[in-house]
Specification:
The protein has 430 residues and is mainly α. The chain contains 17 helices and six strands. Helix 9 crosses helix 17. The structure holds acetyl coenzyme *A (ACO).
């Protein structure tokens, strides 16, 4: 097949550029040699239209509301439901695992679920009420102090060791963070429990009473984690890739992902959604006021859980989570007034020209918090839950980048708009 070309005409000079096509027909103009060959750069603020890599992990069609992991539509993870660990393995290693591979990986997770005592002791020196995302970021970075032999990964076996350590320990770190904030003793992991049940056990068991994990609750948590597992080149994943491109180790690269995810425009939006819904519930804010505030150009307020850089349609994850909320509440024979408020808010927004014209739909964060709340997770831990879910995606993306011999350090350019050359003046002469 002949290579498709694009032509760029600048000052009567014609430049021919390669056009690459992805599996699903997306086309991208290759401008990578434009600077070296023509001293020209491209301007794309916030990298809104720049493909920074070629990837085979996740596919999104934002117009149609499609999300696939390794080719599989996420709706297929809804029923029958795989285990989060199976999805994690698939994202990282590129295909569905065989029974024996999954079992081996599970055994590795069990083997690594405890924290090094040094790391555990760190909880005593951090303020008990420190933001959980700050603790998570610090702990992932600090893992580099305890596993120095894994800072440079030269073979698949060591990579797998690190991936298993991260995926297993992140859950222990999260649960210990919660226990310490509550002034409760740490509950050690139980290797006989599945990933989600084990997490809930560490969060809610007491030394004298094992927490009984309802199957529906375990299933709901498993679903939340699966739906967060990867989302191609989003802000936190790009942070992981940027740090990883400098050949920084996997621990600190994932820690960078945690920091980016914390932002309220990204993963931190799930906390903001709950604050917004709770404020409406308490009567502090009326739904119509909320919509008007979000629309006002004089107000920085946004309708949290709405809008997305890529989705210009209903986020498919939000659709599944909304249905999961209904299912869980029906099974548990209870309700949450925040779910009713969310539904009403969504209805208003989807019928308001402001949101319709801008194609603003609910994103993953709009309903995830309600489900997490039903599971019993406190609001301040919501973004940490997102991070637990996203970790396999970060690891998969880091591996893909690391395995690609053509990867170079990531280094965007700029258009300099500062002073022209000028002189330094002594302080007394200014
Ligand atoms: N409420 C009100 N207005 C919004 C919202 C919102 N939630 N989202 C976007 N808009 C408006 C913008 O003000 C802008 O209006 P304008 O064209 O009149 O200036 C227009 O819609 C386009 O928005 P952008 O800011 O260009 O969208 P961008 O792609 O830069 O940002 C983002 C995407 C950050 C997700 C944005 O929609 C937002 O802030 N949403 C609320 C926070 C949120 O829910 N974040 C979670 C995203 S999902 C995730 O990261 C897991």
């Amino acid at each position: 097949m002949t290579q498709k070309k694009a032509k760029l005409l600048i000052d009567q000079k014609e430049i021919e550029l390669n056009v690459y096509s992805g599996t699903e027909g997306d086309e991208a103009i290759d401008i990578s040699r434009l600077y070296e060959e023509h001293r020209l750069t491209t301007y794309d603020p916030s990298l809104a239209n720049t493909a920074a890599c070629r990837s085979s992990i996740t596919y999104i069609d934002g117009e149609k509301g499609i999300l696939r992991y390794r080719g599989i539509p996420i709706e297929q993870f809804n029923r029958p439901r795989p285990n989060f660990i199976e999805v994690a393995w698939m994202l990282i290693f590129g295909r569905l695992p065989q029974q024996s591979e999954l079992l081996d990986f599970r055994n590795m997770l069990s083997e690594h679920e405890l924290l090094h005592e040094g790391l555990r002791n760190q909880f005593q020196v951090l303020p008990a009420k420190a933001p959980p995302m700050a603790i998570l970021s610090a702990m992932l970075s600090m893992m580099a102090c305890y596993y120095e032999e894994f800072l440079t990964l030269t073979d698949e076996k060591s990579f797998m060791e690190v991936a298993a350590r991260l995926i297993s320990k992140v859950r222990t770190i999260a649960a210990f963070t919660h226990r310490r904030a509550q002034g409760l003793p740490f509950i050690y992991p139980d290797p006989n429990l599945r990933y989600c049940a084990n997490f809930l056990h560490m969060m809610f068991s007491l030394p004298y009473r094992q927490f009984m994990v309802e199957p529906e609750v375990e299933d709901a948590l498993n679903l939340v984690l699966i739906l967060h597992a990867d989302h191609e080149q989003n802000c936190s994943t790009s942070a992981v890739r940027i740090v990883g491109s400098a050949k920084a180790n996997l621990f600190v690269s994932c820690s960078a992902g945690v920091n980016a995810l914390w932002g309220p425009l990204h993963g931190g939006a799930n906390v903001k959604v709950m604050e917004m819904l709770e404020s409406i519930h308490r009567g502090g804010l009326k739904p119509e006021e909320c919509i008007e505030k979000a629309k006002s150009k004089d107000n920085p307020f946004r309708l949290f859980g709405f809008g997305h850089r890529v989705y210009k349609n209903y986020d498919p994850r939000a659709k599944i989570l909304k249905a999961a909320c209904d299912r869980l509440f029906a099974k548990m024979q209870c309700n949450d007034p925040l779910l009713d408020i969310a539904r009403k808010l969504e209805e208003r927004a989807l019928n308001d020209p402001y949101f319709v014209d801008r194609k603003l739909y609910p994103n993953v964060d709009f309903y995830s918090g309600i489900l997490l709340r039903a599971i019993g997770i406190p609001t301040d831990m919501f973004t940490v839950m997102f991070a637990i879910g996203r970790l396999p995606g970060w690891i998969a993306q880091w591996k893909e980048q690391h395995d690609n011999p053509t990867t170079r350090i990531m280094r965007p350019r700029q258009i300099y708009e500062g002073n022209d050359i000028c002189d330094y003046t002594e302080i007394e002469d200014r």
